[in-house]
Amino acid sequence: MENNDRRKEILIAASQLIEEKGLSNTSTNDIVKYLGIARGTLYHYFNSKDEIIDALSHEMTENLLDNARKISKDKNIPVGERFWKTINSLNANTCLGGELLNHIHLEENLKLNYKIESVMLREIPKILFEIINEGIDEGIFSSKNPLVSLEMMVSYVISVIDSDSLNLSETEREKRLIILVENMEILLGCERGFLINYLK
């Protein structure tokens, strides 16, 4: 079996076991037994369970971003709708499942969480920037600094709306999201209600 195929096989097995048994109940020994491979084979690709979790998190992030890029380039979808479809495609809950996601957000995994958030903060504004630029060409938006505006939006979503740090209720999250979108309309220079209408 090719190196990349074996590595992928280990990651798929790990994600399936994590979803079935939970992260704390899944060991490298479980993965070895599940695949019927020698322990040395697993350690040829990964030095520890933490390395496997890191690789799964990286793969999850890349899959989310690749999917978002694909949607953002679909010229058959109007700009406003495409903007929200691209954002919605970045919902990590639909990717590898809640168990891994919960693990990433644990306090002891702050470094891993920070790495993922840094990639998202760097890449998501670039993906959305292409849509906004197209909207500028069409006269929908008139922002002088769309990339900076998008960085502000993504940063706020990551640190406030998607974060558990403020202990927000679902209602409070929704209120903040609406306020954010209203301000994004101002920053991006579009007609009031343009983005909100697509949100409803």
Note the run of SSEs as H and E.
HHHHHHHHHH
Mean pLDDT: 86
CATH architecture of the largest domain: Orthogonal Bundle
Can you tell me the CATH superfamily of the largest domain? Answer: Tetracycline Repressor, domain 2
User: Count the strands?
Assistant: 0
- The CATH topology assignment of the largest domain is Tetracycline Repressor, domain 2
Instruction: Identify low-pLDDT runs.
Output: none
Helix content: over 70%
Structure report:
- This protein has two domains: 1-47, Arc Repressor Mutant, subunit A (Orthogonal Bundle), CATH 1.10.10; 48-199, Tetracycline Repressor, domain 2 (Orthogonal Bundle).
- Helix content is 72%, strand content 0%.
- It has ten helices and no strands.
- The chain has helices at 3-21, 28-35, 39-45, 49-72, 79-88, 98-104, 110-137, 146-161, 170-188, 194-199.
- Helix 4 (49-72) runs antiparallel to helix 5 and helix 5 runs antiparallel to helix 7.
Short description:
This protein has 200 residues and is mostly helical. It has helices at residues 3-21, 28-35, 39-45, 49-72, 79-88, 98-104, 110-137, 146-161, 170-188, 194-199.
How does the SSE layout of this entry go?
Layout (H helix, E strand, L loop, with lengths): L2 H19 L6 H8 L3 H7 L3 H24 L6 H10 L9 H7 L5 H28 L8 H16 L8 H19 L5 H6 L1
Helix pairs in contact: 1-2, 1-4, 4-5, 4-7, 5-7, 7-8, 8-9
Main attributes?
single chain, elongated, 2 domains, Tetracycline Repressor, domain 2, mainly alpha, Arc Repressor Mutant, subunit A, 200 residues, 10 helices
